[in-house]
Amino acid sequence: MLELFLDAFWLGEGTRELLDHLLLVAVDEISYDRCKFLHLHCYRLRLPPAGDGEEKVFMSREFIGMMWRRTEFLGDVLARGYNFIFTDTDVLWLRNPFPRLTTTRTPDLQISTDRFDGNQWSRSNPINTGFYMVRSNDRTISLFRSWYSLKDNSTGLKEQDVLQAMIREGRSIRERLGVRVRFLDTLYFSGFCQGSRDIRAISTVHANCCRTIIAKVADLRVVVGLWKRFRSNATSVDDSAVLANMAHVACANSWK
């Protein structure tokens, strides 16, 4: 997974220079050692006892615990005054995403969606916390603290479910905390839940709607191969054929 993630930065359009600004947060020793070997910026995030070193299957107790530990860590980064883009390693950066992100003071949070409903401000968009850009300010710091504070009262829910509820509830985070959220269009920030309609517009591809790492790796390898083919002959390639071949079969079968 890590190798595919890094490969995309080398193969993408306008993405190589972004590696200098990448901090890789590893939750196991193998990934951390690999990161150091590659001379990247690396941080070792400790999980609760027995939480390191093995796959956390989607929605298992260990998976949910890891997601909440991640939220706590990112809230601490935010509180230290850093704006950042968070990305899972199952998100391939095929183009520099910054031209598709708003870099003005508003919105506070720009977050990917599993399925985009056509309105970038609509709270009905189903969010995905695998990719988002957040500004550090009093509003977002309060958001992350409020979000994490709900951990112990959200048994069986991953942190994404809790944030989704906070966004959609009657007094949303917009009204209570003043946080303005922009929901990202899958045309540009695509995934396996809902693919982009235009290979020439895609910035990122996320292996969401997938249960296991083995399945994610298999289907992301297909995406990387198709991307190489597209880049090598972009003037004559059949765009619709490229998109049709991003069928993520392994991920679809991972739920069976």
Automatic annotation (TrEMBL):
Superkingdom of source: Eukaryota
Pfam families linked to this entry: Nucleotid_trans
Domain Nucleotide-diphospho-sugar transferase: 18-220
The protein's name in its UniProt record: Nucleotide-diphospho-sugar transferase domain-containing protein
